[in-house]
Amino acid sequence: MKNIGDIISSNRKKMKLSQPMLAELLQKEGINLSAKAISKWETNATEPSVATFMTVCKVLNITNIYEAYFEINNDDPLSSLNNEGKAKVLDYIELLHDSGKYEKEICQVIPFSRFIDIYENAVSAGTGNFLVDGPKETIELTKDIIPEAASYGVKVSGDSMEPEFEDGQIVWVLKQNIVENGEIGIFSLNGEAYIKKLQDDKNGVFLISLNEKYSPIPVNEHDRFDILGKVIGKNYLDELIEYI
Fold it and tell me: How far apart are CA 213 and CA 131, in angstroms?
């Protein structure tokens, strides 16, 4: 059985790589470390984590990790062959691939894609803006970075919902006509759209700002009041652009 330091050292030298060169290749794989760290591995002063060691094996073309560590794998018929024998087996495997009769069926992965509407008129975190039937943009996301249950998105305007929601953020809304007391939702009050926390208790119905410098907005008996949905998430615009 070999130790990990010997495996790394021997395969690094086989590929004619210096320790700094190996460190540079690992950095391209997202493993940020110095040549000094590799030196400590090779002298067995420290050991890499399992995930890091797997990446090292990838960079150093160590395809049979079990054999590299235990020197022989009784479950692998290639393990007992010398290099010439292994080359002949690989030649035969190549012939099997070329025949097209023995290829493993591989499931095709369908790339993630999701379409969702974002209303262009911002909902107010201040004085109120029109939303219902307003203009909107439909975007296609290529990564699942928003809540699965989101029905649509709207932009926040103003600072009355800080620090939880900031001006310019996009909030994701589950379309429904019920929001429980204390939950944050999107509301239409007399034709103006708001993002607020709902207060519905013995004192009446109010739209509450999280920023204490804003007074609660009362919902009176004869007001036109509609619940447009419950807020279930948020993103900054630059977080979305990468996946549009």
Answer: 24
Cα dist from 244 to 111, 120, 142, whole Å: 13, 16, 6
The yes-or-no answer on residue 160 being catalytic is yes
Q: Chain centroid to CA 21: how far?
A: 30
Per-residue model confidence as pLDDT tens digits over 111-136: 677 888 888 765 655 444 445 556 77
Determine the residue type at 154.
V
Distance of alpha carbon 213 from alpha carbon 146, whole angstroms: 30
Please state, in angstroms and rounded to a whole number, the distance separating the CA atoms of residues 207 and 190.
Answer: 13
In this structure, the chain runs to a length of 244
- Which whole-number Å values give the CA distances from 66 to 8, 53, 72, in the listed order? 14, 13, 8
In the predicted model, what is the mean pLDDT of residues 214-221?
Answer: 94
Query: Quick one: which H or E segment has residue 52?
Result: helix 50-59
**Helix H or strand E segment including 218:** strand 217-219
- Which secondary structure element, helix H or strand E, spans residue 241, and what is its range? helix 237-241
* HEC per residue, 171-189: EEEECCCCCCCCCEEEEEE
Considering 9, 155, 196, 234, which one is annotated as catalytic? 196
Strand partners, 226: 188
Q: Which of 9, 124, 157, 160 is catalytic?
A: 160
CA distance 90 to 210: 67
User: How much is the average pLDDT of 122-151?
Assistant: 69
Element housing 94 (H / E) = helix 83-99
Residue 101: active-site member: no
